[in-house]
Design goal:
The complex is a heterodimer of chains A (167) and B (392).
Chain A: H1 2-55, H2 61-76, H3 79-97, H4 106-140, H5 143-147
Helix pairs in contact in A: 1-2, 1-4, 2-3
Chain B: E1 7-11, H1 21-35, E2 39-44, E3 56-58, E4 63-67, E5 70-74, H2 78-91, E6 95-99, H3 106-113, E7 114-115, E8 118-122, H4 132-143, E9 148-151, H5 154-164, E10 169-170, H6 177-181, E11 193-197, H7 207-220, E12 225-229, H8 234-239, E13 249-253, H9 257-266, E14 269-272, H10 282-289, E15 293-297, H11 300-305, E16 313-315, H12 320-332, H13 334-349, H14 353-368, E17 375-376, H15 381-391
Parallel strand pairs in B: 1-2, 1-6, 2-3, 6-8, 8-9, 9-10, 11-12, 11-14, 12-13, 14-15, 15-16
Antiparallel strand pairs in B: 4-5, 7-17
Classes of the chains: A mainly alpha (167), B alpha/beta (392).
C-alpha cells in the first residue's frame, strides 16, 4: 500500500516538475523574443541616426560614404550576420566621431546626444538579450528537456556576439 | 520612449524601520520616482506600523536571521507569501522592482509569485560560498524570471556571476549630490581633522584600524583630531584608547543630513577603513560629493568607487601602518589634498539621483517593452496554452 502511495507521489511530482520546467522554458523563449525585438528596434534607430549623421555637416564626403554603406549593411543583415554588420557600423561611427567634435553646430550636437543616449540603451539591451540567450541555451541543454522534448518546435536562439566595447 | 507615468511596485527585503543602505536606496528611489510623476508602492516588512510613509505597504513583522556576517531583519513564510500575492494581484503594476531577490525574503517570494516585467537589483558583495551548490537549483528558476538585473557595483556584479552564473548591468547607488555640495565649513571641525561616519561598533566598519594608526599619525601631527559620527556607545570605544590620545577623539553621535554636508566640507580627510562586506559605499560617495579628501581601504567596492586612486587615496585594507603613512602624507601636502578633493567632488556628481534614476528608468523601459502587466504566475500557463491550441 505504502509502495503505491510512494509511486503515485513520485509520478505526480515528476509531472509537476515537467510542467514546471516547460513553463520555465516557455518563459525564457518569450524573453529571448522580446529582448531581441527591443534590441532590434534600438539598432534600427541607431542606423537611422547614423544615416542622418552621414548626411549632416559632421561627416566629410569620404566618411559619409563609409557610414552610409555600413548603415545600410546593418539594416539589411540577417540575424546571423547582424553582429558583424553592427560592429562595422560601430567602427565607422567611432572613426568619424573620434575627431569631429570640434565642428558641430547645435543641430549636429542634438544628433550626437541622441546617438550617445541610444548607445547607452543599446548596451543595456545587449546585456539583457545575451543573458536571456545564455539562460535558454543552458536550460535547453538539460537532460530532462532533451529527453522529453520540452522545447517543442521553438528555434534555438542565436547568440548575438556584439562586442559592447566597440560601441 | 516611455509613454506616460508607470505604476511601479518595489519590494524591500529588509525591515523598513532599521537603518541600512538598501532601505535608504529604496526610499530615495521611490521618492524620486514619485516626484517624476510615477505611481510607486513599496512592500516592506516593518516593526512599527504607524510610522510608515504613505507609499509603503506593511508586509508584517520581520524576523532576525544571521546572513552574510551580519544580522538581517527579513520576512518570509506562508503568511508573508499570501500577503505578497495579494499585493501583486491588487496592485495592477506595470513593473516590479525587487531588491536583493537572492536572499530568503519577500523579494524572493515576489519573484516566485509574479509573472511579467521584473527588474532585480543586487546589492550584496560576498565571497563565493559553498552553500550555493545546495540552494542554486532552487534560486535559478526564480532569478531567471527577472527580465533585467542590476548590480550596484562591479563587486556586486562579480558576486552575481560567481554565484548564479548570470550577468547584470551595473548602475551605482544614488545620492542627492546637491545636498552635499553646499555644505558650510564649520570652524570647530576644521584643522588637522580626520572624519569617520558610521556604526563604529561594527568591526567591519574598521574603526579599530584607524585607532591603531592613530599613535603614529599623532607623532607626526600632534594637533590631529579624529571626529567620529554615527550611532553607538562611545564610552566603550574610549576605554580601549590610550589615555594620552583620548583628547584627540571627539564623538558627535548621530548627525543630521545638513550637518553631514557641513562635516564633509570642514574636515581635512575622510577615512573609510572598512575591512570588507561593503558592496558600494554610499557614505564614501557622499564624502566625495561633499568635497572631502577621501582615504579608503582598497576593498573592491572602494577601489572601484575611487577610480583606483584617481578620486581619493587608497591604502591596503586592515594595514594600519599603511593607513598612517597615507594620512600623514596627505596632511603634509595641502595641494595634493585639495587636488584629490576637487577630483572627488566631480566624481560625486555622477552618483546624483537625476543621473542614476535616468539609467534605472531606461532599464524599466526595456523590461516593459512587449510584455503584459505584472500578474500572478500560474505554473499551468503552458498547459492552458496547449489546451487553447487544441481548441482552434
Amino acid at each position: 500500500m505504502t509502495n503505491w502511495v510512494a509511486i503515485a507521489f513520485f509520478l505526480l511530482f515528476s509531472l509537476w516538475y515537467l510542467s514546471f520546467t516547460a513553463t520555465r522554458l516557455d518563459r525564457l523563449h518569450h524573453r529571448v523574443e522580446t529582448s531581441w525585438a527591443n534590441l532590434d528596434v534600438l539598432l534600427q534607430k541607431r542606423a537611422a541616426v547614423a544615416l542622418e549623421i552621414a548626411r549632416s555637416d559632421i561627416a566629410d564626403p569620404a566618411s559619409s560614404m563609409l557610414l552610409t554603406a555600413a548603415a545600410y549593411q546593418a539594416r539589411d543583415a540577417e540575424i546571423r550576420n547582424r553582429s558583424q554588420a553592427e560592429s562595422g557600423l560601430s567602427g565607422a561611427l567611432g572613426l568619424l566621431l573620434k575627431d569631429s567634435f570640434h565642428l558641430s553646430t547645435a543641430a549636429d550636437n542634438a544628433l550626437l546626444t541622441e546617438l550617445s543616449a541610444l548607445t547607452d540603451k543599446i548596451r543595456v539591451a545587449i546585456a539583457i538579450h545575451t543573458d536571456a540567450v545564455t539562460r535558454t541555451h543552458f536550460v535547453r541543454g538539460k537532460f530532462v528537456v532533451k529527453v522529453f522534448r520540452l522545447a517543442g518546435t521553438a528555434p534555438l536562439p542565436v547568440t548575438y556576439e556584439f562586442e559592447s566595447d566597440v560601441l | 520612449m516611455l509613454t506616460g507615468p508607470l505604476k511601479i511596485g518595489i519590494v524591500c527585503p529588509y525591515s523598513w524601520d532599521t537603518p541600512g543602505g538598501v532601505q535608504n536606496h529604496i526610499r530615495d528611489l521611490a521618492e524620486f520616482l514619485i516626484q517624476a510623476g510615477h505611481q510607486v508602492s513599496v512592500l516592506a516588512p516593518a516593526i512599527d506600523e504607524n510610522d510608515l510613509p504613505s507609499y509603503v505597504v506593511n508586509a508584517g513583522k520581520p524576523i532576525s536571521i544571521p546572513y552574510n556576517g551580519a544580522v538581517a531583519r527579513v520576512l518570509f513564510g506562508p503568511v508573508a507569501f499570501a500577503r505578497v500575492r495579494q499585493w501583486i494581484s491588487t496592485g495592477d503594476f506595470d513593473l516590479l522592482h525587487l531588491h536583493e531577490p537572492a536572499i530568503p525574503s519577500i523579494s524572493l517570494l515576489a519573484c516566485w509569485a509574479a509573472d511579467g516585467p521584473m527588474v532585480g537589483t543586487f546589492h550584496a558583495a560576498a565571497k563565493r560560498q559553498k552553500i550555493i551548490f545546495a540552494i542554486g537549483p532552487i534560486l535559478e528558476p526564480a532569478i531567471e524570471k527577472l527580465s533585467a538585473r542590476i548590480a550596484v557595483s562591479e563587486a556586486a556584479r562579480l558576486t552575481l556571476t560567481d554565484h548564479l552564473d548570470t550577468d547584470a548591468v551595473v548602475i551605482p547607488n544614488g545620492i542627492y549630490a546637491s545636498r552635499y555640495t553646499d555644505g558650510v565649513a564649520q570652524s570647530i571641525w576644521q584643522g588637522n581633522t580626520i572624519g569617520f561616519i558610521g556604526r563604529f561598533e561594527e568591526p567591519r566598519k574598521g574603526l579599530s584600524v584607524l585607532l591603531e594608526a592613530l599613535p603614529v599619525i599623532a607623532r607626526f601631527a600632534p594637533d590631529v583630531r579624529v571626529l567620529v559620527a554615527g550611532p553607538g556607545d562611545s564610552a566603550e570605544v574610549m576605554e580601549g584608547i590610550d589615555p594620552q590620545l583620548q583628547h584627540c577623539f571627539e564623538f558627535l553621535g548621530k548627525i543630521s543630513e545638513e550637518d553631514k554636508a557641513n562635516f564633509m566640507s570642514s574636515i581635512s580627510i575622510y577615512v573609510a577603513p572598512n575591512t570588507g562586506g561593503e558592496s558600494f559605499g554610499i557614505i564614501v560617495a557622499e564624502a566625495l560629493a561633499g568635497g572631502a579628501c577621501v582615504v579608503a581601504s582598497d576593498i573592491p567596492a572602494f577601489d572601484d568607487l575611487l577610480g583606483h586612486g584617481k578620486y581619493g587615496a587608497l591604502f591596503a585594507a586592515e594595514d594600519s601602518t599603511h593607513l598612517a603613512k597615507v594620512v600623514i602624507d596627505l596632511l603634509r601636502d595641502d595641494t595634493k589634498r585639495s587636488e584629490l578633493a576637487a577630483a572627488g567632488r566631480e566624481r560625486g556628481q555622477s552618483f546624483d539621483w537625476s543621473i542614476v534614476a535616468e539609467q534605472i528608468l531606461s532599464v524599466y523601459e526595456m523590461s516593459i517593452v512587449g510584455s503584459e502587466k505584472v500578474h500572478l504566475a500560474s505554473d499551468t500557463r503552458s498547459w492552458s496554452r496547449f489546451l487553447s491550441k487544441d481548441e482552434k
